[in-house]
Specification:
GO terms for molecular function: acyltransferase activity, transferring groups other than amino-acyl groups. The chain is built from 14 helices and no strands. By secondary structure, the protein is mainly alpha-helical. The longest helix has 44 residues. The chain has one domain. Helix 2 crosses helix 9 and helix 3 packs across helix 14.
């Protein structure tokens, strides 16, 4: 039962990629490319480096033989590890940072993608979103005609290009919300819930290339669209209260630190300890609370101050330039 509920959890990465495209498009900057890229750097990089250092300290303390080689560490630090087919690169240091490597590519291409998509009419935007869904659904089948199963799995799981359709779908959703806001949301909520839950559990029963995103993209897309429309219409959603907003502010730090906490417990307690239900539940709660506390600390002590310093530094440098 527990395995059936939690095993598909990795599809949350797909939601993260779709949401990223939506948020960036919704807050699409009118400033130049360089300012956009600097803001993304200030948002992501300080926490990436901080958690990579923490993982290195953990490994040095408990498992020094698992420290990555210098080249692997450099690839991780510069967020290019997702381009490698080797698992040693993909899962180096803070293993979840491979998604930041994918995001770095999204950030690099976003200005051009936004420029192209914003020139389309609503029909063109819908067609682009449908194309993104088709690329993730039909792409693995086409890939298997020209490459082996392992190569196709790697491409659609790890690579920035293989995950790009999810980001593009998020971009199109933001544009659709701007141009079309249906009044009746209950049918959309029901359909989004059914598609999301159904796709979540279906994802572990299909071959891997389709399990990463294809099963859940329709549900995630409709859920995000409906929630955004409800929020803009000032209707109730479970994400508008102060607690959820605060947790949202900590969510990036939580994502980057949660596996570090899990690995800390693995190093001190053991890998997959066979505890009775009560003790196992207590350890799970402790893991969550420690991850949440670490996320708050990293947000307050690293993420927010570092972002402020980097953005203020750019403003000061711009003021010092001769006119």
């Amino acid at each position: 039962m527990i395995t059936a509920v939690f095993r598909p959890g990795s599809v949350g990465v797909s939601f993260f990629f779709i949401l990223s495209g939506f948020v960036l498009m919704w807050a699409c900057p009118s400033t130049g490319f360089r300012k956009f890229w600097w803001r993304r750097f200030a948002r992501v990089y300080p926490l990436h480096i901080a958690t990579a250092i923490l993982v290195a300290i953990l490994l040095l303390t408990y498992k020094p033989w698992e420290l990555p080689s210098p080249w692997v560490a450099v690839a991780n630090v510069f967020l290019v590890q997702a381009w490698s087919p080797e698992l040693d690169y993909l899962q180096s240091l803070n293993t979840v940072s491979w998604t930041l490597s994918v995001e770095a590519f999204f950030y690099l291409t976003f200005p051009l993608l936004a420029l192209g998509v914003t020139r389309l009419n609503r029909r063109g935007v819908v067609a682009t979103g449908a194309g993104a869904l088709a690329a993730t659904t039909l792409g693995p089948a086409a890939g298997l005609l020209f490459a082996g199963r392992e190569q196709v799995d790697w491409f659609f799981h790890w690579t920035p290009v293989g995950r790009l359709p999810e980001f593009v779908l998020g971009i199109t959703l933001a544009l659709l919300v701007r141009s079309w806001r249906p009044q009746r949301l209950l049918p959309l909520w029901c359909a989004a819930g059914a598609l999301t839950v159904g796709g979540y559990f279906l994802s572990i029963h299909v071959p891997e290339p389709w399990g990463y995103a294809a099963c859940t993209m329709p549900g995630f897309a409709l859920l995000l669209f409906t929630a955004a429309v409800a929020d803009l219409s000032k209707r109730w959603t479970p994400w508008r209260n102060r607690t959820m907003v605060r947790l949202g502010e900590w969510s990036f730090a939580f994502y980057l630190v949660h596996l570090l906490v899990v690995r800390l417990f693995e190093a001190t307690i053991g890998y997959h300890p066979k505890f009775p239900p009560g003790k196992g539940a207590a350890l799970t709660v402790a893991t969550f609370l420690l991850s949440l506390g670490a996320a708050w600390l990293l947000h307050a002590a690293v993420e927010r101050p570092a972002r402020g310093v980097l953005l203020n530094r750019r403003r000061r440098m711009r003021k010092l330039r001769p006119s």
